[in-house]
Amino acid sequence: MASSEELHKRRTAAVARGVGSVIASYVDHAGGGTLTDVDGREWIDFASGIAVTSVGNAAPRVVEAVQRQAERFTHTCFMVAPYESYIAVCETLNTLTPGDNEKRSALFNSGAEAVENAIKIARHATGRPAIITFDHAYHGRTNLTMALTAKNMPYKHRFGPFAGEIYRVPVSYPFRDGGLAGGQAAAHAVDLIEKQVGADNVAAIIIEPIQGEGGFIVPADGFLPTLVTWTRATGATFIADEIQTGFCRTGTWFASQHEGLVPDLITTAKGIAGGLPLAAVTGRADLMDAVHTGGLGGTYGGNPIACAAALATIQTMHELDLCAAARWIEATVLRRLHDLAVRHPEIGDVRGRGAMLAIEIVAPGTLTPDPATTAAVSAACHRAGLLTLTCGTYGNVLRFLPPLVIDESTLHRGLDILEAAITGR
Ligand code: PLZ
Q: How far is the CA of 51 from the centre of ligand 1 (A)?
């Protein structure tokens, strides 16, 4: 078998430079909470392929469902010759997502595609053009979703011009806004929307209930509910982008549930199908059904193998109670991170929910981001066999996204590596 070194050479000659990778080791197989590279080295997985393999890699039920479906048929295109599993995924999403109102769903391939479609639906249903997005937001890399995404490098740099009628307002970021109350932070955002955009022009507010790529930012209590109340009063649509936060990741099925929110539309992807590409828009039946027949779709959206994987994934989440597992991970990891923060003043903030946790690294006693130390700690983790990711507008957030099935000893071994990486620098 080719070594990572050999594969890296081939990759450099064959794969476009624009596509990066966090590590230069190449995967041979993966399962549960670990990956094994082609050189036979084991990695503890605190990344889950960016919050995707919540049920574990190659989860047995998912593998079996994929194999069974692949033998029956691999693709017909739901818009050409429909099949049951697409309907079953939509039924499941309509019941699982917050709110007992009547809902509909439509299936797509990627998170960005789901976001694009949620915006299409909101604009079509309201007849309004403007979309409100936030500082530190991440919604994807397609043209419309780049416009929604906040950070220039690496996502947007020289890829413009971007889609129009997108307006960005400040988010609640307790570590950096002096602990502004959620309601006050929302009032500030609403004031800007009303003055600069005009309430009657707003088709939708789109927000990640916990911002992901932007830095695992948990808004202050009351921020999201105040925005929802404003959309209800003005006829705008509230879109929760739960692509990273959904499917038990934060200790509930959806992060919106922490504050009892019922979004008008909700976008999901990542954790939904155990690693197979699937995404969805789920929401109020009147909004979803406003679009004319044939107005939504795509060749592969709701591919039968991805749908079979999703049904097996969701069943596994129920059976293993992975929302409870995420809450256990939160308790276990937060205890150790808080302990570490006491001894390391460069850890300015410890935050997150469930198995979506992070530390923000700054010059001690200040808010000045320290991306160099963040990168150095992450690199030290990689050298010791722990796969970690960084994020944040300032590149100074180290985030932890273990699969929800990770066992206690693997989780602690991972945290031991992290602790040594921070202590040993
Ligand atoms: N919305 C909230 O987190 C994807 C991006 C990784 P796609 N996040 C990982 C990268 O650098 O490309 C994401 C997200 C939220 C939308 C998306 C986009 O989902 O499936 O990557 O298109």
A: 10
